[in-house]
C-alpha cells in the first residue's frame, strides 16, 4: 500500500464519519424543533439538490484539470469557509 494513498484514505474516512455525525445531529435538531417529517424531507432535499445539480459539472471539471490541485483548492476553500463560520459564531 502506498503511504500517500493510506493518508488520503484515512483522512477521507475521518471526514466521512464527521459528515455522517453532522447530518444525524442536524436532522435530529430539525425534528426536535419542528416535530415535522416534512421539515426533514425539505432539509434532505436542500442538502441533496446541489449534489444532483452540480455533480455532472464537477465530473467535467475533474476530468479536465489536475486532481491534486483541485483537492488542494477545495480543501483550502472549505477550510476558509469553516474558519469564517467559526469566527463569526465565536464572536456572538
Quick overview of this protein structure:
The chain has three helices and no strands. By secondary structure, the protein is mainly alpha-helical.
Please describe what this structure looks like.
With 92 residues, the protein is mainly α. 92% of the residues lie in helices and 0% in strands. 0% of the residues are buried.
The tally of beta strands, per DSSP, is 0
Helix proportion: over 70%
Structural domains: how many: 1
**Uncertain stretches:** none
Radius of gyration: 17 Å
Order of helices and strands: HHH
Class computed from helices, strands and strand pairing: mainly alpha
> What can be said about the biggest beta sheet?
none
Strand residue content: under 5%
Q: Shape, please?
A: extended
The average pLDDT score comes to 90
The total of helices stands at: 3
**Distance between the amino and carboxyl termini:** 46 Å
Amino acid at each position: 500500500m502506498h503511504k500517500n494513498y493510506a493518508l488520503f484514505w484515512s483522512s477521507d474516512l475521518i471526514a466521512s464519519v464527521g459528515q455522517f455525525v453532522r447530518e444525524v445531529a442536524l436532522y435530529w435538531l430539525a425534528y426536535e424543533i419542528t416535530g415535522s417529517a416534512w421539515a426533514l424531507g425539505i432539509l434532505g432535499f436542500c442538502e441533496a439538490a446541489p449534489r444532483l445539480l452540480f455533480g455532472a459539472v464537477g465530473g467535467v471539471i475533474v476530468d479536465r484539470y489536475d486532481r491534486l490541485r483541485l483537492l488542494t483548492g477545495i480543501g483550502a476553500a472549505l477550510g476558509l469557509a469553516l474558519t469564517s463560520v467559526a469566527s463569526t459564531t465565536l464572536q456572538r
